[in-house]
């Protein structure tokens, strides 16, 4: 497959193909942009259907990290890595040490953290051979509660911009997905006085929300159409698409899930319907902010949370820019981020 001319290449600085015969490691490290600092991003382990699919995923995810970190004001660039394999059957400490040696060979241009299919134990295996890792045991730990805190700040910003509200009391919020982020978000919303409608494919998770937070349950495939003020997608990507957008009743969409828009054009479709969309990589940056506080030195949770509260102002800036320029909020977020990592210089 072509690389330099691939549609998702987008001026990547470096793409590294890692092969280790002894452990069977086959991995790709994509470094999109290091203008603002070393690239930091998760290492995903996934049984990709093809090598092309793995390359595309690495390229897209690393580009997304550049935008996310720039928008969060972090001194970090964007990178991501993928290991081709089944996380359930093909993991071993030796595999992650082999991968860690490739990370080390980049001299700090890429810092690896957890992602889908990898966990703290895998990062610890990498740490035996490289210091360029984050999200270690005894470090900042699980980023999800901090991500949920950031999403809560983003929901507050959206309620301010769309409804002129300074609090969430009495607002109806639909939370799709009650996992690590969604359930903690539900708690925060409940404590802020919001009424909750929830959905998950895991009945146990629903039971926890209905019992602890007086939530009402809804079928997982209909939650996007709930009659609410705010829809918070916290499960899957591509949930905002041609089928769901016409059915959404909420005036605000603000949730944790990555890649919520099925395609870029769906940002414009939401604007056309008058729905205020909090761009995913702006509202869900709490986790990367938390990890940055670990990789930058001694981890201070209070300092990390204070920086996460900045998501409120970042979103207000995006909403204001979108309104002033008559563009979708997703485009406004891209423009704010691109100013921050100097995309104009790349294109020159
Ligand atoms: P998770 O796997 O812990 O939770 C996902 C939940 O969604 C699970 O409870 C699962 O049962 C449920 N789910 C799956 N399919 C569903 C469906 N069709 N309908 C309803 N529920 C469904 O994941 P998480 O860590 O809570 O992350 C949630 C989302 O936020 C993901 O898109 C993730 O990429 C994104 N995100 C997470 C973090 C973080 O710090 N964990 C940071 C940034 C972005």
Automatic annotation (TrEMBL):
Q: Where does the record place the Glutamate/phenylalanine/leucine/valine/L-tryptophan dehydrogenase C-terminal domain? A: 141-347
* Gene3D superfamilies (UniProt xref): Leucine Dehydrogenase, chain A, domain 1 (3.40.50.10860), NAD(P)-binding Rossmann-like Domain (3.40.50.720)
Spell out the catalytic residues. Answer: 80 (proton donor/acceptor)
* CDD domains noted in UniProt: NAD_bind_Leu_Phe_Val_DH (cd01075)
Annotated GO biological processes are: amino acid metabolic process
Q: Which UniProt keywords apply?
A: NAD, Nucleotide-binding, Oxidoreductase
Keyword NAD in the entry? The reply is yes
Gene Ontology molecular-function annotations: nucleotide binding; oxidoreductase activity, acting on the CH-NH2 group of donors, NAD or NADP as acceptor
Query: InterPro entries this protein is in?
Result: Aminoacid_DH-like_N_sf, Glu/Leu/Phe/Val/Trp_DH, Glu/Leu/Phe/Val/Trp_DH_C, Glu/Leu/Phe/Val/Trp_DH_dimer, Glu/Phe/Leu/Val/Trp_DH_bac/arc, NAD(P)-bd_dom_sf
Q: Where does NAD(+) bind?
A: 177-182
Keyword Ribosomal protein tagged: no
The record's family statement is: Belongs to the Glu/Leu/Phe/Val dehydrogenases family.
Q: What is this protein called?
A: Amino acid dehydrogenase
